[in-house]
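Here comes a specimen:
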Amino acid sequence: MQARTIIRFIVFPALLLATFITSAQYSSAIKLVANPVFAGIEVGSKGVKMSVVEMKKKSFAVVKDTSVNTDFITFSSETSDATLEGLAGLFNTALTVYNIPTDRIYTVISSGVKMQADKDNKQQQIDQLIGSFRARINEPNRKVDVVDVTQEAKLSHLGIVPESRRYTTFLIDIGSGNSKGGYFPHGNTNYFKLFQLSWGTKSVANATEKRTDEFDRTIVNYQRQLTRVLSAIETEDLIYAINASGAFAMSDHIAFSGGISWAVATLLHPEQADQSAVSVTFGEVTAFAERLMNNFKSVSDTALVRTTTGIADPLATAKEIKRVHAVFDQRSLMAGTGLLLKVMRQFASVYESKQFVLIKNGQVGWISAYVDQQTEKQ
């Protein structure tokens, strides 16, 4: 069974009027039936995520998707301890709450963590986390993969993009510590053109915070320093990475996944709360970034539910907006949205219009595809 055949039914079961349409939100639970259930647990830059999936004959069904924010890529003793607690806690939840046997629980370290560790010479912290986790759960031989960036990016594409858009979509996952993605340039999945950038929402925010003077912690100064950080990223890294990928000429659709994509899609279009993919324009996101800076109260759950027309379920929508604000504060939203805009800008041309799509639940795609690959090896 091919991973791309299985996963596409999770995230993109249909296409409608040139937009990506998906089934229920990843946070909704389903009743388990007599099918195998697996868990994939990932240590990412910002925290630990777990996806519980039920394998059916032709698809996966998402049972639960949850996360614990631990800010691991600061590599402090406090965040390392919190990450260990989160990893062990989610492992035990899969084991005891969902009754998943240990051989169906897969544990991985994301490529974003590895890239940041390599940059900061903190590989030892990853090794210590893996060793401590194995000791905590009493499984000294537990496999904990440190996922390669190419593997993660390719699995994300196979897990998120529908078959009908497989060869015309450039997918970029903006994570906490890095951004990665790519596309299939030759009309098949044998060759994947990788895109990677050693910047993500959290690493941009951290770099900006380091530039803020202790005597001026105002949001105005934060925006000033953020502009400088993003300008340097654009000229020193981003333009080259996009040009080297060749994606502008080859891709009609630019899809973004990652936490900031979920956050922006949720706050920018709360009336589409039941959609897992939202089409946006460069102008919309630019205006949204200005609101974050100048009128942050306007993107609160109360304000958005009151001022947005077409919201079908105000209570559920307000709850999802609150989840965004629990994960991202004003400054991290500004940092992530600013990075998103810098990438979008590379594809916003007067000569050709690209379709931009924000994916809300992209993390389910690659981890579920990873689970599928591992089960095929058994």
User: Anything to note?
Assistant: The first strand starts at residue 14 and ends at 16. The CA atoms of residues 184 and 192 lie 5 Å apart.
